[in-house]
Amino acid sequence: MLLNSSCICVGQTLVGPLFNEPMRIESVQENPGNWVVGLVGSQSERFRRVTLTREDLAQLTIVEAAHSFDGDGRLLRLGLQAYALGIAYEFDPYFALSIYRISLRLSTTTY
Q1: Is 42 helix (H, G, I), strand (E, B) or coil?
Q2: What number of other Cβ atoms are within 10 A of residue 38's Cβ?
Q3: How high is the pLDDT of residue 103?
Q4: Is 4 helix (H, G, I), strand (E, B) or coil?
Q5: How many helices (H) and strands (E) does the chain have?
Q6: What is the dihedral of CA 61, 67, 69, 70, to 10 degrees?
Q7: pTM: predicted TM-score of the whole model, two decimal places
Q8: CA end-to-end span of the chain, whole Å?
Q9: Per-residue model confidence as pLDDT tens for the chain (111 residues)
Q10: Residue 51: what pLDDT?
């Protein structure tokens, strides 16, 4: 199996027996015959810099970083409103209260 540096790139995830958790690729540097890869654990958030050979890469599964936009829009709106209220509360607690009343009226209004 012939591998080149284009097969591993920043943002992909490596899964396999060499690591105890899925590892996200943060940096890639190609050397003759191997790659120096900066990895971050998906659960531990621990950074590791490892050298991988062609044989090591053959044991690993490379998962592409694909973004999905199929989330719940109502939850996104709720989170954005909570964030805005938090910022408003830091500025002025009474201002946050007035914003909350306005957003509550807008969310209960039917058109």
Answers
A1: coil
A2: 16
A3: 59
A4: coil
A5: 3, 5
A6: 0
A7: 0.55
A8: 61
A9: 334 445 788 889 999 999 999 999 999 999 888 999 999 999 999 999 999 998 998 899 988 877 778 889 889 988 988 898 888 888 888 877 777 665 555 566 554
A10: 93
* Residue 92, pLDDT score: 85
Sign of the dihedral through C-alpha 38, 43, 46, 51: negative
pLDDT recorded at residue 105: 58
CA 6, CA 92: separation in Å to the nearest integer? 51
> What gap in Å lies between CA 50 and CA 58, rounded to an integer?
15
23's torsion region: left (phi>0), alpha (psi -120 to 50) or beta?
beta
How buried is residue 23: exposed, middle or buried, by Cβ count under 10 Å (0-12/13-18/19+)?
A: buried
CA distance 47 to 24: 9
CB 49 within 8 A of CB 36: yes
Q: Residue 108 corresponds to which tokens in the numbers above?
A: 């209960």
